[in-house]
Write a structure and sequence with these properties.
single chain, alpha/beta, 7-stranded mixed β-sheet, 7 strands, 15% strand, globular
C-alpha cells in the first residue's frame, strides 16, 4: 500500500494563491467556489504577485483574507471607481473587482456603467444572487418578479418595484467593453465554463485589451430559505430563464 501511495500523482490541491483562512460564506453558497476559481486562474496565469483585488461592502467584504495578493476594501458601490484609480496609477498591476448585485447594479450603478463605458482595463466579477445577501435579504435590482424578500414579503411587484435589471445586457450595448459574459455555478459543467470565462477576462487585462465583465449567477440558500440542492435547481430551472447564460460581447 505504501508503495502505491508513493506512486500516486496529486491532481487536485488548494490553489497556491489562496490563503488558509476559513471562509465566512454560508453553507451551500457559491461564493466559495468562485473564490477558488479566481485563485486557480491567478496560479495558472502566474499573476498573483501583481494582483490587486477590490472588495466593497457585501458578502465579499472579507476577500482580503482569501488571497495571497494585495487587496483593497472600499465603500459600498465604489469598487469600479477605485479599481480605475489603481489601474491608471499603476497600469502594470492586474486589478479586479468582486461585487454583488446590490453593490454593482444598484448602489454602484454610476461607477459600474462609466468604468465600462470608458473601457477601463480592469476585470469585474459580478455575483448575481438576486438578493442583498449580507445585510438581511432585502430586494435587489436583480430580484425576480414575485420573489419574496425581507422588503418584498409578498413578492416583487413590478408595478411598484419594476422588473429585474439585466445589467450585463446594459453593459453589452456600450462600445468599449471587450468581453461581457454571464455564467453559473450550479453544476460541474457550468463551473468549468465559469472558470474559462474568468481566465479569459483576466487574460484580456494582461494583454491590455480593456474592460471585461463576468456575471456569475449564484445561490443564496440562507436568504432564499432553500436547501443548497433546491437552490442549485432553482438557478438552473428558474433564474437562467430571466438571466440567460452565455457571451454577450467578445471583441477580444
Amino acid at each position: 500500500m505504501s508503495a502505491k501511495l508513493e506512486n500516486m500523482v496529486k491532481v487536485f490541491e488548494r490553489p497556491q494563491s489562496l490563503t488558509n483562512a476559513k471562509s465566512t460564506y454560508c453553507p451551500g453558497c457559491h461564493h466559495g467556489i468562485l473564490t477558488r476559481i479566481i485563485g486557480d486562474v491567478m496560479d495558472e496565469l502566474d499573476i498573483a504577485d501583481r494582483v490587486v483585488g477590490i472588495a466593497p461592502v457585501g458578502c465579499s467584504v472579507f476577500a482580503y483574507l482569501w488571497y495571497k495578493a494585495d487587496s483593497q476594501q472600499v465603500p459600498h458601490g465604489r469598487a469600479c471607481a477605485v479599481a480605475t484609480g489603481i489601474k491608471r496609477a499603476r497600469p502594470e498591476l492586474i486589478v479586479f473587482s468582486y461585487q454583488g448585485d446590490g453593490d454593482f447594479a444598484s448602489i454602484g450603478t454610476a461607477e459600474s456603467i462609466h468604468a465600462a463605458n470608458r473601457g477601463e482595463n480592469i476585470t469585474v466579477i459580478f455575483v448575481n444572487n438576486q438578493i442583498y445577501g449580507m445585510t438581511g435579504g432585502e430586494m435587489a435590482p436583480t430580484t425576480l418578479v414575485d420573489q419574496k424578500t425581507t422588503t418584498s414579503p409578498e413578492g416583487r411587484d413590478p408595478s411598484v418595484a419594476g422588473y429585474p435589471i439585466r445589467f450585463s445586457e446594459m453593459i453589452a450595448t456600450l462600445d468599449a467593453p471587450v468581453y461581457v459574459t454571464r455564467q453559473a455555478l450550479f453544476d460541474t459543467k457550468h463551473i468549468m465554463e465559469t472558470k474559462k470565462a474568468i481566465k479569459k477576462a483576466f487574460q484580456n487585462q494582461v494583454d491590455g485589451k480593456g474592460y471585461s465583465l463576468v456575471e456569475v449567477l449564484s445561490t443564496c440558500p440562507t436568504n432564499w430559505r432553500m436547501s443548497p440542492v433546491k437552490s442549485n435547481k432553482h438557478v438552473a430551472e428558474t433564474v437562467t430563464k430571466v438571466f440567460p447564460l452565455g457571451d454577450l460581447v467578445d471583441r477580444g
